[in-house]
Amino acid sequence: MEVEKLLKKYSKNISFPNKKKTFLDEKDIVLITYGDSIIEPKVKPLKTLTKFIGEYLTEHINIIHILPFYPYSSDDGFSVIDYKKVNPDLGDWNDIKDIQQKMDLMVDLIANHI
Description:
This protein has helices at 2-11, 45-57, 93-102, and strands at 30-33, 63-66, 104-107. It is of the alpha/beta class. It has a domain at 36-114. It has a three-stranded parallel beta sheet with strand order 1-2-3, covered by helices on one side. Helix 2 (45-57) runs parallel beside helix 3 (93-102). The longest helix has 13 residues, at 45-57.
């Protein structure tokens, strides 16, 4: 897999941040992704993302920013219907919690589309 080759090539030259700090700085490595960017058959995308994080990213990335994962009506997730729910096509709150347990988590608050 191309990602594995790149990680092997560059991981020796990367210093990873201390997870106990409270603010972002230049040492943070952030992955920004939609909840369904990595998929596999018959598995909810957030479960697949959690698995991918555990297998490939925890030693290389310390923050994941998941773009809107709420139920939505349009605009690729940015027209949120219910902020209290996870889009069932992606998974559920337990999947979000599982991701957060693997690394720091950022999510969108889409206030200008209310």
